[in-house]
Amino acid sequence: MAAYSPVDTPPGSGVLHEGFYSEKRRNDAMIKIDFDKMGGLIPAIIQDYENGEVLMVAFMDQKTLDLTLKDGKTWFFSRTRNKYWMKGEESGNTQEVMEVLTDCDADTVVIKVKQNGPAACHTGNRSCFYVRWENDQWVEHSKPLFDPNEVYKK
To answer: Is residue 64 packed enough to be buried (19+ CB in 10 Å), middle (13-18) or exposed (0-12)?
Structure first.
């Protein structure tokens, strides 16, 4: 089998570099996501499909991963609200799934998305990762693209 590097592999091709699988995994019929390590949840890293920017991190269980794969939109489980939610259901800033990957332990996913709407973060910022450690303090380095008080009227 030829070795593929992530650079040589076109997105969505389903071809992974040879070293991705352990010997045991190569012989298994199917890789299963391990929801047991974190009590039924896995981290989902949401990344901009075009430029690689990390937009957000959220949690998924089996149901929300299945919904995401079936629906083509990102679905999550909110630990603080104890409920299922689709990204953009209130704000309109939905995410169209372009590619889904898992790590070598099959306990985390990276979901590459087309971000529909200006922002992925509930604060109105493009990314949830808009605070940077600089000179011994945390500093915001972007401005909201929408007013969350206007968008999330409750």
So the answer is: buried
Model's pTM, two decimal places?
A: 0.79
Question: Measured between alpha carbons, how far is 142 from 133 in angstroms, rounded to an integer?
Answer: 13
Q: How many CB atoms lie within 10 A of CB 51?
A: 6
pLDDT digit string (tens) for 111-135? 999 999 999 999 999 999 999 999 9
CA distance 9 to 17: 8
